[in-house]
């Protein structure tokens, strides 16, 4: 189970299926539109 977390606000953006437990950092739509 993987998780994508927003770098700016630390909210969970999305979960995705993965063999390993991983955390990726991205930007959520709210922070992306600023």
Using brief descriptors, characterize the structure shown.
34 residues, mainly beta, three-stranded mixed sheet, 3 strands, elongated, SR1P, GapA-binding peptide SR1P
Outline type: elongated
Mean pLDDT metric: 93
The tally of helices reads: 1
Task: Sketch the topology as an H/E string, one letter per element.
Answer: EEEH
Major sheet summary line: 3 strands, mixed
Low-confidence stretches: none
Structural class by sheet pairing and helices:
mainly beta
Distance between the termini: 29 Å
Notes on the protein architecture:
The mean pLDDT is 93. 12% of the residues lie in helices and 44% in strands. It is built from 1 helix and 3 strands; from the N terminus they run βββα. It has 34 residues and is mainly β. The chain starts with a strand and ends with a helix. It has a 3-stranded mixed beta sheet, with no helix packed on it.
Helix and strand topology:
Blueprint: E1 2-6, E2 12-16, E3 22-26, H1 29-32
Parallel strand pairs: 1-3
Antiparallel strand pairs: 1-2
How is this structure best summarized?
InterPro entries: SR1P. With 34 residues, the chain is mainly β. The chain is built from one helix and three strands; from the N terminus they run βββα.
